[in-house]
Write a structure and sequence with these properties.
Blueprint lengths: L14 E10 L2 E10 L5 E8 L8 E7 L8 E6 L7 E9 L5 E3 L3 E4 L6 E4 L6 E6 L8 E7 L4 E7 L5 E5 L6 E8 L4 E8 L2
Length: 195
């Protein structure tokens, strides 16, 4: 006689340990670790930009699980995030039985600072602010703050030109912070007022 042993295959669900996203130049690096892993599990990397009301989740990569009772480490580089702007990421974990769970949503802001230059510095009467091309022909707010953070001057241009001017003749001598902002970008620099 023969003793034939039949065993039911062991199915291991993947359990997530951590999920992180960070910027690497103009790419998004996603890294996640599992506590336990199964080769029949899939990790679907999902991306969206903007608010959930405007944009749906897009599947950008599927990674197959590794067989490991002690967990595994994974990473994916998203080389084409939406620039500039906020990018949102999550991972859909599809178990062997078809059930799906999602990680928490992580976000990265790729908004870049405006480039600007000011002159003269020190200044006594009129400060000239040269704007980056990103700000020209856009709605721009020009603000001046004292070093204590008090707003001392502000103007808004509905259509900004390459060079805008700020009359600082009424400001006292001292150091100030000039802030230029659009709907998406912001930049600041310091100026010395000296009459």
């Amino acid at each position: 006689t023969y003793d034939v042993g039949l065993a039911t295959p062991f199915v291991l669900n993947s359990k997530l340990g951590s999920f992180n996203v960070r910027k690497v130049n103009e790419s998004s690096l996603l890294q996640w670790k599992t506590i336990s892993d199964d080769k029949d599990v899939s990790f679907i990397v999902q991306h969206r930009s903007g608010s959930s009301a405007q944009f749906a989740w897009e599947n950008i990569m599927t990674v197959t699980g590794k067989q490991s009772i002690s967990g595994s480490e994974y990473q994916f580089i998203h080389k084409t995030p939406s620039l500039p702007g906020v990018n949102y990421y999550r991972i859909a974990i599809v178990q062997a039985n078809g059930s799906v769970t999602y990680t928490e949503v992580k976000s990265i802001n790729f908004e870049k600072a405006l480039k600007l230059s000011i002159y003269p510095n020190p200044v006594s009467q009129k400060l000239l602010v040269t704007l980056d091309d990103e700000a020209v022909n856009k709605k721009v707010k020009l603000s001046v703050y004292s070093v204590e953070g008090k707003l001392v001057y502000q103007t808004q241009k509905s259509i900004a030109t390459k060079t805008e001017s700020i009359d600082i003749s009424s400001l006292a001598n001292g150091q100030y912070i000039v802030v230029v902002s659009t709907d998406k970008n912001v930049s600041s620099t310091t100026v010395i007022v000296q009459h």
